[in-house]
């Protein structure tokens, strides 16, 4: 199933609803212990991804800088379902990293990770 990209108005409405739900979810007056509820934390993380501010992974003790970078890059695409496939197909179609970066608002470092992962040098 191919998802059509959202237009600007649909993105605006989606983010507006996500902000409203996030405010209700994390309201200390109505939900004083929301941060102790695993379901609320999971939903908060999903809403933050919709708003464009996902929770990034933290470097583990003893983890090399390169291993952390790879894990962080993969996490970036994991929280954005379908983006990895779209980016790889565009790169295979001959688009440059800069073109893909501008089209999907993805940092070049994340695109270089995919290029290396799929051997698209």
Which descriptors apply to this entry?
mainly alpha; 0% strand; 121 residues
Task: Tell me what you see in this structure.
It is built from six helices and no strands. The chain has 121 residues and is an all-alpha fold. The protein has two domains: 8-50; 69-117, no CATH class. Helix 1 (8-25) runs antiparallel to helix 2. The longest helix has 18 residues, at 8-25. The radius of gyration is 17 Å and the shape is flat.
Number of domains: 2
Order of helices and strands: HHHHHH
Radius of gyration: 17 Å
Structural class, please? mainly alpha
Report the average pLDDT across residues.
Answer: 87
Amino-to-carboxy terminus distance: 29 Å
Please give the structural blueprint.
Layout: H1 8-25, H2 38-50, H3 65-78, H4 83-92, H5 97-104, H6 108-117
What's the short version?
The chain has helices spanning 8-25, 38-50, 65-78, 83-92, 97-104, 108-117. It has 121 residues and is mostly helical. The chain has 2 domains: 8-50; 69-117, no CATH class.
